[in-house]
Amino acid sequence: MENDSLTDKLKKAKDRFKSILEKNKNRKTPERFAILEEIYLNQTHFDAESLYIKMKQNSYRVSRATIYNTLDILVECDLVMRHQFGNNKTLYEKSYGFPEHHHIVCEQCGYIREFTDERLNGIVEDAAQLPNNEINRTALNIYTSCLDQDCVNLH
Amino acid sequence: MENDSLTDKLKKAKDRFKSILEKNKNRKTPERFAILEEIYLNQTHFDAESLYIKMKQNSYRVSRATIYNTLDILVECDLVMRHQFGNNKTLYEKSYGFPEHHHIVCEQCGYIREFTDERLNGIVEDAAQLPNNEINRTALNIYTSCLDQDCVNLH
DNA sequence: ATAGTTGCAAAAGCTTTGCAGTATG
DNA sequence: CATACTGCAAAGCTTTTGCAACTAT
Is A48's CB less than 7 Å from nucleic acid strand C? Predict the structure, then answer.
């Protein structure tokens, strides 16, 4: 599934969303699917406001309230991940059908790179050994600075 | 130094703060040292507002603006670390003289545990290998849920 | 003396909430 | 046709900013 095209991934995400909404007796409104589509056909690491603006530009009129509400649901459904990279801004990222990964964030220009490392699993499992707990998610963020002046242009 | 008493650590933190302020030609105001003292003699993982309230309760009157300003400086001086544990709140933690560690955060009750793992260093070094970058800090956060109802009481 | 700091209050930025109207099941 | 959902605007929270008054050097 990780080799699917963008539209394949969108389709699978929609199917998942549909079935979870049905299971939970939530309504399958056009707004919810339009938001999911906007997210899955576009770039990763976005904030709520940019998503709002982008949908307005695409002539799809949704309110901010619906954006926030739907993002909450999508996170709950494991279709979207919520991140915080140290600047008091919440960023989101499509996640269903994409491999788990971690982030390297430049504190100067905000550029975000992704990486994976198998060894992390062992660390996390060992660390979280405590009765009555279950791991929901793990975030490993590496914050860097560019050594050159023109940080933004380098990436 | 990691075996020093709280007051020893405070003293060393004050010395460091003093010398960095002098080096940068910043003023050594009583407010700045009062805030440092409040932080170093108290519990870890606090937010700006609680610090503000606590100082007011201790009859030390500082403005919120000074709290935020001083926290910025303390972070810059490596005397305090800034954290975000996924709930849009910035938490701070005294750090000078305390071993580096990572966090396990219960998403239900907010309880925070700390852990260390030597193996992480290798992962971080391998991940961040890119010219013109330098690592400022690394945050590994494990988010959990309690499986029991009375989550808060269990910890 | 002078410029860095403080305090206060206003403003900014992001997110949540209340409510009237709408549309899904 | 009942009620979950949407849109809008207001409110809430945390953090930042502007400016006059103060004080460390």
Answer: yes
